[in-house]
Amino acid sequence: MSHLESTVFATLRKTGIRFYILFGVLAALVVWGVFAYIYQLIEGLGVTGLSRPVYWGIYLTNFVFFIGISHAGTLISAILRVTQANWRRSITRIAEAVTVFALCVGGLQILIDMGRPDRILNMIFYGRYQSVFLWDLTCIGIYFMSSITYLYLPMIPDFARMRDKLTDIARWRKWLYTLAALGWKGNHEQHRRLEIAIAIMAIAIIPIAVSVHTVVSWIFGMTVQPMWHSTIFGPYFVVGAIFSGIATLFIAMAIMRKVLRLEAWLTDKQFDYLGLLLLVMSAFWCYFTFAEYLTTVYSALTHEMHVADAKLYGEYAWAFWLMVFCNAVVPFAILTRRAGRTVMGTVIASVFINIGMWLERFTIVAPTLTRPSLAFEHAIYQPSWVEISITVGSLALFALLFVIFFKLFPSLAIWEVEEGIEIEERNRINKQLSLEDLRAMEKA
Amino acid sequence: MKLSRREFLKISAGVAATSAALPLIQTVQNVAASDAAPRAPDPSTPLRAPARATYDEKYLHTVCSLCPSGCGLEVRVVDGRAVKVEGNPLHPLNQGVCCPKGQASLEVLYSPERLPAPLRRKVAKDVAANDIAQWEKISWDDAQKIVADKLRALREQGQAHTVALLHGNLRGQLRPLLQRFLNAYGSPNLISMENDLARLALFLTQGVNGYPIYDIDNARYVMCFGGSILESSQHLQKYLSGYGFMHRGQSNRAKLVVVDSRLNVTAAKCDEWVPIRPGTLGALALGMAHVLIKSGAVNESFVKNWTFGYDDFKDDQGKTHLGFKRLVLEQYTLERAQDITGIPGSTIAKLAGEFGSNKPALAILPTGRGDLLSGNGLSTALAISALNALVGSIEVPGGVQVQHYADYAPWSALPSDAGAEKARAMPRLDGAGADYPVALSSYQTLAENLAKAKPYAVNALFLLNTNPILDAPQGQRFVDALKKSFVVSFNPTLDESAAYADLILPSLTFFEMWQDDVIEGTGFAGVALRQPVVAPVRDGRNPGDVILHIAKQIGGAVGQALPWRDFLEVVKFRIGALGISWDDLVKNGAWSALVYNFAQPGSKAWSKVVGRDRVNAPKDGRYDFFSRELFAALNPSDDVACLPHFELPAEPANAAYPFLLTCQETMTQPRSCVGVVPSLQEIYGLQVGSRWDSWVEIHPKAARALGIKKDDLVWVESAAGKIRARAKLVEGIWQNAVNIPYGQGQYTAAQWGREPSTAKRVVGVNPLQLVSTSAEKISGLAMMLPTRVKIYK
Amino acid sequence: MARWTMAIDLDKCLGCQACTVACRMENNTPIAGPEQAEKGRAILWNEVIPFVEGEYPNVTARYIPRPCMHCDDPLCVKVCPVKATYKNEEGTVLVDYERCIGCRFCTVACPYTVRYFNWHEPYYPESLKAHLNPDVPIRPKGVVEKCTFCVQRLQRARAKAEAEGRVFLASDYVPACVQTCTGRARYFGDLDDPTSLVSQLLKSPRAFRLLEELGTKPKVFYLREG
Ligand SMILES: Nc1nc2c(c(=O)[nH]1)N[C@H]1C(S)=C(S)[C@@H](COP(=O)(O)OP(=O)(O)OC[C@H]3O[C@@H](n4cnc5c(=O)[nH]c(N)nc54)[C@H](O)[C@@H]3O)O[C@H]1N2
Ligand SMILES: Nc1nc2c(c(=O)[nH]1)N[C@H]1C(S)=C(S)[C@@H](COP(=O)(O)OP(=O)(O)OC[C@H]3O[C@@H](n4cnc5c(=O)[nH]c(N)nc54)[C@H](O)[C@@H]3O)O[C@H]1N2
Ligand code: SF4
Ligand code: SF4
Ligand code: SF4
Ligand code: SF4
Ligand code: SF4
Ligand SMILES: [Mo]
Question: What ipTM was assigned to the predicted interfaces of this complex?
Answer without folding.
Answer: 0.92
